[in-house]
Write a structure and sequence with these properties.
Length: 143
């Protein structure tokens, strides 16, 4: 008795469809094309996952930096000074924090956009290849 595949990825599609005989259809080419599709999707998922990891890593760095800066600001605020001086300093700190938050948000969105762009470019390239394969297949059947 033949061993059953444990997962879909263990299934040898070429053996399964090899027995199918469809006139004018190159089963090996279809199987090869689908294998390339799976490889492209796997690579696109890898790129997307790496993008998520980069965003998460940067977010952790931002949080660590914010906590360190917050501790320094708290220490600075309890030091001696006039209420007016403290109010001016708090305003400056709030402005700096807002500008840093915008810069951090921009940086994170750029990381995400780059990751998405790379994955989309890979899938777009594969789609173009699929169209070329279809064209080639049609040309072969005409002959």
């Amino acid at each position: 008795m033949a061993k059953q595949p444990e997962t879909l990825l263990d299934l040898d599609i070429s053996k399964f469809v090899g027995e199918l005989k469809v006139p004018g259809v190159d089963i090996e080419a279809v199987v090869s094309s689908q294998r390339k599709n799976i490889e492209a999707l796997t690579q696109a998922n890898k790129l997307a996952f790496e993008g998520v990891q980069a965003v998460f890593k940067r977010q952790v760095e931002i949080i660590r930096q914010s906590l360190e800066e917050g501790a320094a600001v708290a220490k600075e605020m309890v030091e001696a000074g006039t209420p007016q001086d403290k109010a001016v300093r708090q305003t400056e700190l709030a402005k700096d924090a807002f500008e840093r938050a915008l810069a951090n948000a921009r940086e994170l969105s750029e990381i995400i956009a780059k990751s998405n762009s790379e994955a989309f470019e890979l899938l777009n390239k594969r789609f173009s290849q699929i169209l070329d394969e279809i064209k080639e297949g049609i040309t072969k059947t005409k002959k």
